[in-house]
Amino acid sequence: xxxxxxxxxxxxxxxxxxxxxxxxxxxxxxxxxxxxxxxxxxxxxxxxxxxxxxxxxxxxxxxxxxxxxxxxxxxxxxxxxxxxxxxxxxxxxxxxxxxxxxxxxxxxxxxxxxxxxxxxxxxxxxxxxxxxxxxxxxxxxxxxxxxxxxxxxxxxxxxxx
Length: 161
Fold this sequence. Notes:
4-stranded antiparallel β-sheet
């Protein structure tokens, strides 16, 4: 009687092999779909990075009561935010980080994301009220040549199109 109770507990080797086979087949079908979505997620991440940089530059300009520049470098796929106040012997309001002008933050685009030259040039300056000197579109592109546009409005607000 005791052997009968223990014999019904657990799984047989055949049952375990069937479950492992089902899991392997499901994984084989699901994993390629996951990998094909990675460029789309990276593109969205790049657009959000760009949007965040614009918002941070605007908020910093208001908070610091100073001019803040968001500089684009398409070659290195990076963004730089700095206070353009001429500190440390630099020239104020020239859209060039010189002297000891304080770096607020640098952003690097995610892997596989290209930062295209913005329609408003390589740098935009926000005044102490958060209003940009230029407005227009900045675009990010992934390996599949899909793009997302981040629009900077004349009011200083920005949004992903």
